[in-house]
Amino acid sequence: MQKGKLPMMTFKLANKNDINLKLILAVGSTVTEAELDNVNRQRNRAMKIMDNIFKEVDIFLLLMYLEYHPLAINIGFDKSSNLPIALQMMSKWWSEDLLLSVAYQIEKMFPLTSTPNDYQRVLEPQTSSG
């Protein structure tokens, strides 16, 4: 492995001829450790800014202008907090088929086989015993 490069991940594609998915995975595998460290620093900075905002307000309302169509999928749960970890993706206009195809491939890589221990169904009626 080259210094500064992350290990190459390999994926089994449902459609081996899907050049768009191959291209996305190839581009994603070129991220260096320095770039990933920079992304993590920026993420931590953004989290601190949001934490400071939530010290002053309870809810943060944002206007949405969806020029590009975002999609978020759950890819697991944090081991220490049991909070969900989501992956958000966006694609260019009129390429929702690609976005959904990639999301489907990723969901197959991270199947959700369980729910957190403290999970409660709050939208379904609770049955009381007695």
Notes on the protein architecture:
By secondary structure, this protein is of the alpha+beta class. It folds into 2 domains: 16-56, no CATH class; 58-114, no CATH class. The chain contains 3 helices and 2 strands; from the N terminus they run ααββα. It has helices at residues 19-28, 33-56, 96-109, and strands spanning 69-77, 84-91. Strands 1-2 form a two-stranded antiparallel ribbon. β1 (69-77) and β2 form a beta hairpin. The mean pLDDT is 73. This is Fatty acid amide hydrolase. InterPro entries: AS_sf (IPR036928).
Rg calc: 19 Å
Give the terminus-to-terminus CA distance.
63 Å
Number of helices: 3
Task: Give the percentage of residues in beta strands.
Answer: 5-15%
Which spans have pLDDT < 50 for at least 5 consecutive residues? none
**Could you spell the SSE succession in H and E letters?**
HHEEH
Q: How confident is the prediction overall: mean pLDDT?
A: 73
Strand count, sense and closure of the main sheet?
2 strands, antiparallel
Protein name: Fatty acid amide hydrolase
Organism: Thelohanellus kitauei
InterPro entries: AS_sf
Question: In a nutshell, what does this entry contain?
Answer:
This protein has helices at residues 19-28, 33-56, 96-109, and strands spanning 69-77, 84-91. It has 130 residues and is α+β, with helices and mostly antiparallel strands.
Secondary-structure map with pairings?
Layout: H1 19-28, H2 33-56, E1 69-77, E2 84-91, H3 96-109
Antiparallel strand pairs: 1-2
Give descriptors for this structure:
37% helix, 130 residues, alpha+beta, 2 domains, two-stranded antiparallel sheet, 13% strand, globular
